[in-house]
Design goal:
two-stranded antiparallel sheet, 26 helices, 643 residues, alpha+beta, five-stranded antiparallel β-sheet, disordered C terminus
Length: 643
């Protein structure tokens, strides 16, 4: 046997493959050993290279039952077509007599062109060149803007347009940790970043279960029902937290803008949001469908890292109009885009909730409260139609998975509860003035009791979710309604209570942690990081050369790597695309509440300034003596609050 033939045999999967009973269904062989075969002379006039292919085997019993697909690697000459390779893979089964002695067993073998690779890399297409030119253009703009910003006299009048793309100015904005008029909401920064980190952690563990591994069955069956697994399967609540924060901050900006102008410009309300968010999204879509496809290689590269390229080519427009959660939701250009669509749609609908609060406060609160109740009822009814809340790992591979994603996970109506909860929370903190009142400061005992109840609710929500992941638990209809309605509401309510406690000076050491200066910086990167993190994880999976062993010591370090790499790339995305377009929209002056503001109309008023400092902490307990609001007329706007 010639050496090249021996190398091809050595780099192919051996039959029968190991650990199949542990659901090790993807066997990659030795990719690099195969494709490193170059210029093998077939005869005096022709030669070939090594070609690594993945063959998909599907077993059936009497044509009625099909097994999960088994993928095996074959190293064949580059002159072989996918059909030729499938024939070779099928011929391997003729070597096993046991296969032919089992009655009714059939097998089909398929080799797709995207699963065959050689050492030759694809050439740059016209789209790739256009994408590179766009990036080069922005790089030139950034260099010019930065030089103009640094070398011109800052005391002279300068064009905001010319310094909008300055890395120097945008970098200072990113690293700025000075106080602002909304410092009572500083805890939001920590909650936002920790929620993003939770999402990345869950995504790493869940994508890990789809990676080639030797112990998937054991890991999934043991990890998902465990308490550690409960934290992963409860990752959906991280999105509910982000929706809560989104509603809170949209309402805050709305009330501040209304107070400044005593009017509401609906077109600018929508235009500012679209212009601020869309450029960074468009760049990520462009990179995912062009240049990033050239950034790596591996036996799974085309099937994973390039998997969404066709979706971007066909359905790019759904992302730019933020309808990808309804239009072809199972074929999204970027898989995490559903959240951006839901958040934008809630933003579009938010004036229907904010204007009633502004015009008719009494009826507005009832209206928002009814929307919250309606959201919880809708989720309960839809989940009940599943007929079974199967464990997470079974539902994601069951026929109910698509129903769950289409009608429960992606749609905007199932996210009303956390978003509206954020609006109501902002109303009480800002308009009702609870963030500035002295009488909301709690005693040590009451403060401790409130924190115990709040933390108990948060843990309870995760515990209930964990109960539904047990393989021996079969819930009845009422348990299903309870878990999808009451529990769905309790998470945003509990997180909102944490924000309320911190904003009213009752946060103790929790507020100290959440208001860490670095969280303010990291919070500014959350949008860019959310856009980037899936690309980082998919690229890692697409580059795999061998199976992995699934456990915490494998997946958690990978999560830390995901987080660091994501933050590095998100800094670049923020400085070049997110911050510049936000700067082009112009800033907003600190807000004050005039006497004719909606909050002050027809009510007895008092002038109270926002408290900038957090309570002192001694041995983890808030000092009861620190109960008065410090007045700082220099930095803090005067807010007219209702009594």
């Amino acid at each position: 046997m010639q050496k090249w033939a021996l190398t091809m045999s050595d780099s192919s999967t051996k039959f029968p493959p190991s650990s199949v009973l542990q659901e090790a269904l993807t066997h990659l062989g030795n990719f690099d050993e195969c494709v490193d075969l170059r210029d093998i002379k077939w005869n005096e006039t022709s030669s070939f290279h090594g070609q690594h292919c993945l063959a998909t085997h599907t077993f059936s019993l009497w044509g009625l039952w099909s097994s999960p697909s088994l993928k095996t690697a074959l190293c064949v000459p580059s002159t072989c077509t996918p059909n030729d390779t499938a024939t070779i893979a099928m011929d391997k089964f003729t070597e096993f007599e046991w296969y032919f002695t089992v009655p009714g067993v059939g097998v089909e073998v398929e080799v797709e062109e995207q699963n065959c690779h050689t050492a030759d890399r694809p050439e740059f297409s016209t789209e790739d060149i256009i994408a590179a030119s766009i990036l080069a253009f922005f790089a030139i703009v950034v260099v010019f803007s930065t030089c103009y910003d640094i070398f011109t006299d800052k005391n002279e009048s300068r064009s905001n347009l010319l310094i909008a793309f300055s890395v120097y100015t945008n970098g200072k904005k990113l690293l700025n940790t000075s106080s602002s008029s909304s410092d009572f909401l500083n805890c939001v920064h920590g909650i936002r970043f920790l929620s993003l980190a939770w999402i990345i952690l869950c995504q790493r563990y869940l994508t890990g279960t789809t990676s080639p591994s030797i112990n998937r069955r054991q890991f999934v069956r043991e990890f998902i029902p465990s308490w550690k697994g409960a934290f992963i399967t409860s990752g959906e609540y991280a999105f509910d937290t982000l929706f809560l924060l989104s509603g809170l901050m949209v309402a805050y900006e709305f009330f501040m803008t209304i107070d400044e102008t005593n009017s509401f410009n609906i077109p600018m309300f929508y235009i500012r949001r679209y212009v601020r968010l869309t450029p960074a999204l468009a760049i990520i879509m462009m990179l995912r469908s062009t240049l990033l496809t050239h950034s790596g290689s591996g036996p799974l590269w085309d099937a994973t890292a390039n998997g969404e390229k066709n979706n971007c080519v066909n359905y790019w427009w759904t992302n730019l109009v933020y309808l990808q959660n309804y239009v072809n939701p199972m074929e999204q250009c970027i898989s995490q885009g559903w959240y951006l669509a839901v958040d934008m749609q809630l933003y579009w609908l938010s004036p229907l909730l904010l204007v009633p609060l502004w015009k008719r406060l009494k009826y507005g609160k009832k209206f928002v409260g009814n929307i919250i109740m309606l959201g919880t009822i809708v989720v309960s009814v839809l989940m009940a139609n599943l007929d079974y809340p199967t464990p997470f790992y079974e539902m994601m591979s069951s026929p109910g998975s698509e129903y769950y994603q289409r009608f429960i996970y992606y749609p905007v109506y199932t996210r009303f509860t956390p978003y509206c909860s954020g609006i109501i929370l902002c109303y009480f903190l800002v308009v009702e003035g609870y963030a500035t009142k002295n009488d909301v400061r709690m005693s040590k005992i009451l403060n401790l009791v409130m924190w115990i109840i709040t933390v108990g609710f948060l843990i309870g929500v995760i515990a209930v979710n964990n109960k539904f992941q047990q393989t021996d638990f079969i819930p009845n209809r009422w348990e299903l309604y309870f878990s999808t309605s009451f529990i769905k509401y309790m998470w945003p309510f509990s997180v909102g209570t944490v924000i309320y406690m911190c904003a009213t000076g009752n946060g103790c050491f929790v507020n100290t942690i959440l208001t860490w200066d670095w969280f303010r910086i990291l919070s500014r990167l959350t949008y860019s990081a959310y856009l980037v993190h899936v690309s980082v994880q998919i690229s890692q999976i697409g580059s795999l050369r061998t199976q992995i062993f699934l456990d915490d010591m494998t997946l958690f370090p990978q999560f830390l790597g995901d987080l660091i790499i994501t933050l590095v790339f998100s800094v670049m995305l923020y400085l070049v695309f997110e911050a510049p377009f936000e700067a082009l929209l112009g800033g907003r002056k600190p807000a004050t509440w005039p006497e004719n503001s909606p909050a002050a109309s027809n009510e007895q008023i008092t002038e109270v300034s926002v408290h900038q400092d957090t309570p002192e902490v001694t041995a983890g307990i808030c000092n009861e003596e620190n109960t008065e609001v410090n007045h700082s007329q220099e930095d803090v706007p005067q807010i007219t609050t209702r009594i």
